[in-house]
């Protein structure tokens, strides 16, 4: 499934990032609930780490593990090669197997990783990366500038059809290579085994982090490469050769993904030798209570926090990720092509009740494609789409949808039906219950369909048999990250030249203040266009085995960067 929203880009956060629905908004000091009254939004009391008070309560199953940490994960598709993932859960797996050239610090700014430093030319077009010495892949083979050049090159192959942003940077000579007019990309120059430069056609504020992504082994992934033929890589997806903290040892679909420490990891082998993703279906609460898993994330409701505290053996860490959730609208369906209908859905859906009140304040309403943690976030000039059946009905009237004898609106002989897709979860249950009543009040025939696993939902969306589907983004570092899905027709049916113009303008400068102004205009445009229905931002808590030491969380990288340091005391 080619969807940027399902890719994690090295972020180890599946249960957090890909639940069916969540919560968000600029101001949750009060809430307009279903009956139109206003009441104070509940807030959670946990604002810092809560340490497990009694580790003697830790189940024997967890006590007996001395060199293994287990985490729950929705079943991945098995495409574990970076740049070729089929879902975000594949990205969760590869985030343990690969390390990028450049990472980000706690402020979302670039930080060294495989590349110990880099230079940018005065014209802001040429990036020169200086790799650390003695880098190795997990099999002990050397990682050099040739591997970086190979990685950037195959992403320009004419048969590449996934969603890496590297081909969009305009690397000089990239278009000629893709067209088969050149055997190499002229803008990529290997200077020596530890040094590589790349020249782009015009300045791009995200180029450093985009170019600084994962590195593929040329010897392994390029052995059978022929221009125009990338199908062979699929055969290597489940036997990846990486350079990250762990090595894949076993993948049993529907059961587990097993890893062991990479002795050749450039930062040294992880402190905990074995790591397991438990992918079998089951109750996460039960898994935590019985000690079958060591780490899980939950919505930050007071009920959840109190229940977790009562266990006695888990540390609890509050966290607000840099993500947003939304309802993807099928813009190829006639009714949803009309902006007034999409706006009516936004007005007619009581998002406050669904995502904030029902979650005891563990979320905020979202109205733009950026999280409140982002330096570009703003509410100035943004329509909050406060719940109003009256406003929704007015817009549907204006759009020509007239109520029929059964109360369902019709136009040109067609009923106004919304076929909704969601993943099985308590949040989806809440959404369906409230949405059913909300849509009935505005004459919409609401038809929900719930999937037990994400891959089935994604396949249904890919086939186009839906009207609305719930998704969340991966972690967003740069403001442009949350906009990619609106670009180049990735959301089929959305093509706004003004958006593309502003998007490119925002990337053409490294001036933060100038970029803020442009993103403010972009947010206003998308807040009015509603190519998706923005729903919420999440507030979650991590609950984990109190024996785990050195677990830290980054606002932009989540827990991914600290996993190699986790240690069972």
Automatic annotation (TrEMBL):
Matches recorded under InterPro entries: Peptide/Ni-bd, SBP_5, SBP_5_CS, SBP_5_dom
Record carries keyword Transmembrane: no
GO biological process terms held by the UniProt record: peptide transport
A Gene Ontology term for the protein's cellular component: ATP-binding cassette (ABC) transporter complex
Coiled coil: none
One Pfam family this sequence matches: SBP_bac_5
Family from the record: Belongs to the bacterial solute-binding protein 5 family.
Membrane topology: Lipid-anchor
Signal sequence range: 1-25
Name used for this protein in its record: ABC transporter substrate-binding protein
Species name: Paenibacillus kyungheensis
SUPFAM superfamilies: Periplasmic binding protein-like II
Main localization category: membrane
Signal keyword on record: yes
Domain named Solute-binding protein family: residues: 111-487
UniProt keyword list: Signal
Subcellular location(s) of the protein: Cell membrane
Single GO MF annotation: peptide transmembrane transporter activity
């Amino acid at each position: 499934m080619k969807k940027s929203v399902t890719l994690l880009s090295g972020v180890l956060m599946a249960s957090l990032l890909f639940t069916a629905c969540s919560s968000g908004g600029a101001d949750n000091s009060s809430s307009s609930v279903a009956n139109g009254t206003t009441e104070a939004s509940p807030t959670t009391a946990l604002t810092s780490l809560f340490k497990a008070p009694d580790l003697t309560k830790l189940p024997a199953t967890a006590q007996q593990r001395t060199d293994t940490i287990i985490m729950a994960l929705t079943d991945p598709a098995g495409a574990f090669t970076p740049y070729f993932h089929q879902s975000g859960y594949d990205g969760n797996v590869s985030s343990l197997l690969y390390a990028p050239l450049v990472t980000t610090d706690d402020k979302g700014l670039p930080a060294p990783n495989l590349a110990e430093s880099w230079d940018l030319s005065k014209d802001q077009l040429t990036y020169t990366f200086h790799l650390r010495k003695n880098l190795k892949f997990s099999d002990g083979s050397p990682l050099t500038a040739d591997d970086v050049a190979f990685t950037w090159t195959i992403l320009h192959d004419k048969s590449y059809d996934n969603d890496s942003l590297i081909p969009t940077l305009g690397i000089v000579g990239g278009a000629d290579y893709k067209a088969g007019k050149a055997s190499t990309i002229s803008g990529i120059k290997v200077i020596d085994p530890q040094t590589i430069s790349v020249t782009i056609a015009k300045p791009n504020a995200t180029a450093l982090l985009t170019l600084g992504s994962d590195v593929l082994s040329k010897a392994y992934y390029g052995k059978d490469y022929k221009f125009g033929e990338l199908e062979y890589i699929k055969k290597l997806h489940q036997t990846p050769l990486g350079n990250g903290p762990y090595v894949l040892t076993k993948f049993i679909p529907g059961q587990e993904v097993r890893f062991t420490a990479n002795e050749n990891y450039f930062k040294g082998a992880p402190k905990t030798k074995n790591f397991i993703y438990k992918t079998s279906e089951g109750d996460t609460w039960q898994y935590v209570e019985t000690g079958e898993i060591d780490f899980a994330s939950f919505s930050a409701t007071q009920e959840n926090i109190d229940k977790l505290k009562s266990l006695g053996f888990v540390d609890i860490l509050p966290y607000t990720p840099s993500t947003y959730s939304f309802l993807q609208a099928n813009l190829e369906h006639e009714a949803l092509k009309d902006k007034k209908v999409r706006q009516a859905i936004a007005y007619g859906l009581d998002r406050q009740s669904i995502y904030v009140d029902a979650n005891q304040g563990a979320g905020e309403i979202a109205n733009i494609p950026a999280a409140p943690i982002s330096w570009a976030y703003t509410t100035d000039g943004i329509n909050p789409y406060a719940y109003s059946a009256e406003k929704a009905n007015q817009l549907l009237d204006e759009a020509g949808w007239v109520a029929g004898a059964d109360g369902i609106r019709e136009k040109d002989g067609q009923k106004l039906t919304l076929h909704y897709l969601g993943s099985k979860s308590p949040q989806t249950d809440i959404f369906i219950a409230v949405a059913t009543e909300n849509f009935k009040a505005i004459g919409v025939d609401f038809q929900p369909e719930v999937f037990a696993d994400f891959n089935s939902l994604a396949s249904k969306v890919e086939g186009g048999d839906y009207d609305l589907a719930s998704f969340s983004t991966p972690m967003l570092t740069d403001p442009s990250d949350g906009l990619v899905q609106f670009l180049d027709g990735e959301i089929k049916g959305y093509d706004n030249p003004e958006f593309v113009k502003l998007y490119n303008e925002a990337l053409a400068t490294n001036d933060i203040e100038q970029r803020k102004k442009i993103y403010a205009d972009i947010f206003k445009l998308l807040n009015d266009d509603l190519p998706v229905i923005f729903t919420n931002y999440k507030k979650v808590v991590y609950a984990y085995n109190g024996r785990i030491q050195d677990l830290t969380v980054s606002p932009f990288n989540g827990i991914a960067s600290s996993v190699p340091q986790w240690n069972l005391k």
